[in-house]
Design goal:
Length: 95
């Protein structure tokens, strides 16, 4: 599901480009279970418990929570995926 239009007036491309998003993996919009902050993060298909999935058709509801750094929480916390950002993935691939 592509929901890459700026969510809540956020710049998703800038969030993805920041070091906070991570360096590799599928871009997902996710919520930190610690502070409730929603940010773009990168997670591998293995972390999302979808090792054989095509990221272009992957739904957030099929993904599991994953651990990633949350700077406001000052450490690694669990993040719940709310959207797979296929538009950002397409733009990275040059599609």
């Amino acid at each position: 599901m592509s929901v890459d239009a700026d969510r809540d007036d956020r710049d998703l491309e800038a969030e993805l480009a920041s070091a906070e998003a991570g360096r590799s993996g599928v871009p997902v919009d996710a919520v930190c279970v610690g502070c409730g902050r929603t940010r773009v993060k990168r997670a591998s298909l293995e972390e999302l418990d979808q090792p054989d999935a095509d990221p272009m058709v992957l739904e957030a509801s099929d993904c599991t929570s994953f651990k990633h750094v949350c700077y406001p929480c000052q450490g690694a916390t669990w993040w719940n995926p709310v959207a797979v950002l296929t538009g950002l993935l397409e733009s990275e691939r040059g599609e």
